[in-house]
Amino acid sequence: MFPNLQYLNFGRSSIYDERLSFGGIFINVRKVSLYNERPFEHEFFLRIEKSFPFMEELTIRNHEQQINKQFRKSKNENQDLSIIKYPYLKQLDLIQTCIDYYEQFLFDTKMDLAFGVRVGMMFELVKEVTHNFTRNRTRNNCAKINYVNLCTGIQYAGYSDNFSGGKQQLPEYIKDYFPYTQID
C-alpha cells in the first residue's frame, strides 16, 4: 500500500487505541515520532517493534504516566513482560516524556537497547530512574549508549534549551555508569 513510506509521525489520540493494529510490517520506515495525551503502554511498544523492524530513530513526546505500570509492579517485578528489542535503533529522544518512559527504555527487564544508540534525556529524570547512577536494572542499557545528551532544563516560552554542553560539571561516577558514552 505504501511501499516507499520511510517516516511515520503519530500524534494525539488519533492512533493510540487498544484495538489499533498497524496492519502490517513497514520495512522502509526508519523514523517514528510518537506524541499523545494518553499514555503509551509496554504493549504499544511491542507493536511498534513488530510493525517497524528496521526503525532507526524514535522520538517520544508524552507526559502521561503509564496506567498498567502499577498492575505490573505488583506481579513479580515486571518479570511477566516480553523484553522489547529495536535492533537497528540509533537515536532515541526521551527529553519530553515523564519518568515512566525512562523506565520503559532503561530497565533491562523491559527493553534490550541496541549497542551504540544516541539518547536525549533529562538529567534529573535519569538520575531518579537510575537511583543516582547506582541501579543495576538500568546499568546494562546505559552501558550500551554511545552518546547521551543530558538536558538540564527546557523553557517553553519561546523554547530555549539549556543543555549541559560542557557547562555543567558532571560527577565522575556518572562516567562509570556510562562507560562507553560521550556525555554532553
Q: From N to C, what is the helix and strand string? A: EEHEHEEHEEHHEEHE
- Oligomerization status of the protein chains: single chain
The portion of residues forming beta strands comes to 25-35%
Largest sheet: 8 strands, mixed
Query: How many structural domains does the protein architecture include?
Result: 1
| Shape field | globular
Briefly say what this structure is:
The protein is α/β, with parallel strands linked by helices. Helix 3 packs across helix 4.
SSE inventory with pairings:
Layout: E1 7-10, E2 31-35, H1 42-51, E3 57-62, H2 69-74, E4 84-85, E5 91-97, H3 99-106, E6 111-112, E7 117-122, H4 123-129, H5 136-143, E8 145-155, E9 160-163, H6 172-177, E10 182-183
Question: What does this molecule look like?
Answer:
This protein has helices at residues 42-51, 69-74, 99-106, 123-129, 136-143, 172-177, and strands at 7-10, 31-35, 57-62, 84-85, 91-97, 111-112, 117-122, 145-155, 160-163, 182-183. It has one domain (7-183). Mean pLDDT is 82; it is low at 12-20 and 155-166. Helix 1 links the parallel strand 2 and strand 3. The chain has 6 helices and 10 strands. Helices cover 24% and strands 27% of the residues. It is globular, with a radius of gyration of 16 Å. The chain is of the alpha/beta class. The strands form 2 sheets. Strands 1, 2, 3, 5, 7, 8, 9 and 10 form an 8-stranded mixed β-sheet that branches. The protein has a two-stranded parallel sheet with strand order 4-6. The longest helix has 10 residues, at 42-51.
